[in-house]
Amino acid sequence: MDFYKISKDSGKRISKFNSDFIMSRVIQTDKATNIVCMNLEENGIIGYHQAAVPQLLVVIAGEGYVRNDKEEYIKVQSGDAVFWEKDEWHETKSDKGLTAIVIESVELNPSLFMPLKK
User: Fold this and answer.
1) % of the chain with per-residue pLDDT over 70
2) Of 91, 79, 80, the residue nearest 51 (C-alpha)
3) What's the chain look like in SS3?
4) Which Gene3D superfamilies match (predicted)?
5) Nearest to 3 by CA among 104, 75, 98
6) What CA–CA distance (Å, rounded) separates 79 from 65?
7) What number of other Cβ atoms are within 10 A of residue 103's Cβ?
8) What are the distances in angstroms from CA 19 to CA 9, 23, 25, 34?
9) Where in the chain are the domains?
10) Among 71, 92, 96, 100, which is least packed by CB within 10 angstroms?
11) Binning pLDDT at 50, 70 and 90, where does residue 88 land?
12) pLDDT beyond 80 at 118
């Protein structure tokens, strides 16, 4: 389980087409990719299971806790991204609610685009 930070500090300023914003890349794939939005309500849980393919959980709102095969839960919040390798056991839960985008693909490699969270 690796943790990444989605932040404008690792982004690039875009000015093309009279634009003025910072774009932070998350992932790029050439193969089939599933992208879903998961909404955990108060006391919601994505149960303990193995990742069928590499998986990236990008927290966009709220906060919660994740774990892998260890019993220890680690807090995550908006702006955090958690990466699990294929076959890695994991679980996500939230006491207050959490919204996340989940990206699944055989070729995910978030370290190409995002810095590890310190």
Assistant:
1) 99
2) 91
3) CEEEECCHHHCEEECHHHCCEEECCCCCCCCCEEEEEEEECCCEEEEEEECCCCEEEEEEEEEEEEECCCCCCEEEECCEEEEECCCCEEEEEECCCEEEEEEEECCCCHHHCCCECC
4) Jelly Rolls
5) 75
6) 14
7) 22
8) 18, 11, 17, 29
9) 2-112
10) 71
11) very high
12) no
Give residue 4's pLDDT band: very low, low, confident or very high (50, 70, 90): confident
Region of 9 please: left (phi>0), alpha (psi -120 to 50) or beta: alpha
Closest CA to 5 of 53, 76, 70: 76
| Residue found under tokens 């990008």 | 58
How does pLDDT run across 14-66, given as a tens digit for each residue? 888 888 888 777 777 888 899 988 999 999 999 999 999 999 999 999 999 99
Tell me the two tokens of residue 79. 């702006």
Domain 2-112 annotated CATH 3.90.1150.10 = no
* Chain position carrying tokens 């989605």: 6
